[in-house]
Amino acid sequence: MTSDIVRIASSALSAEINPFGAELWRLQDADGRDLLWDGAAAWWTGRAPLLFPIIGRLPDDGFSHGGQSYELAKHGFARRRAFEVVRREPDLARLRLTADAETRAAYPFDFVLEAEFAVRGAELCMTVSLANPGPEPMPATFGFHPAFRWPLPDAGPRDGHTITFAEAESGPLRRLDATGLLGPEPLATPVDGRRLVLRDELFVEDAVILERPRSRSLTYGGERGPALTISWTGLPHLGIWTKPGAPYLCIEPWRSLPAEARAPRELTARTDLLQIPPQATQTFAMTVRLD
Fold first, then answer.
1. Which among 63, 106, 196, 225 has most CB atoms closer than 10 A?
2. CB 118 within 8 A of CB 31
3. What pLDDT score was predicted for residue 1?
4. Distances in Å between the alpha carbon of 99 and those of 54, 115, 120?
5. In this structure, are residues 50 and 117 in contact, taking their beta carbons and an 8 Å threshold?
6. Which positions ≥6 away from 139 have C-beta within 8 Å?
7. How far apart are CA 114 and CA 131, in angstroms?
8. Domains, the chain, ranges and CATH?
9. Average pLDDT over every residue of 128-142
């Protein structure tokens, strides 16, 4: 579904945002080269969904609260809801989603989720705030899920692309199990020092998940330019995902990991989730810089 696409631009970058899901819809450099995946249905219709109020699946796709049971689909519902455009300028857009009867049927908490997109020179800055206007603590998490072209335009062959982290990353690596829940055991990391060589074999078992990496930035690119430097704040975990052979790579900073099979069914008992106090706000940010 597409709504009235919002376009913002600087001299170096242009971005389009779809109010349905507040999803980054397109990202181009000054020469019109596409840096973001286009959502072709042959591979994956997503482009850059926002993950809220959960990341991944819940056991049995549900939870309990206050003696009631609820069903909540994978990655939550924000990506399938229409946001209101509350601010629109040539280089900035802010969109908002608030709780209503439909969201409360799946997630019985009040919330205000705002996503701001701003282009500043060669940078796209995405800032998300999550507020709890309700009377009780709100269990939630948030994650970015942008899919970049693999290979990037004019950056050389697909098998020449790498990720270089700001810091050496020794692990641990986590994986999803056959049911889509987080496996209980950490694994050896495929990162060699600061460098991850991208190859399809990494993603046969779904996402590569770095639990609390030291780095808060990385550079993604090929044998020649352009490259993307991606940084984030307020998001301690990182998922990297594609389907083997697909022409995109998702680089996903997350606030929490996906649930394990043994996770408590009561959301307020999940110590890995945020428990946002009444009248409090949490903020998360991700920046993409074209180098």
1. 63
2. no
3. 60
4. 15, 15, 31
5. no
6. 53, 109, 267, 268, 270, 273, 274, 275, 276
7. 9
8. 6-290 (2.70.98.10)
9. 97
pLDDT reading at 86 higher than 70? yes
Q: Which residue has the tokens 């056959």?
A: 178
Cα separation, 257 vs 51, in Å, equals 12
- Per-residue pLDDT tens over the stretch 201-218: 999 999 999 999 999 999
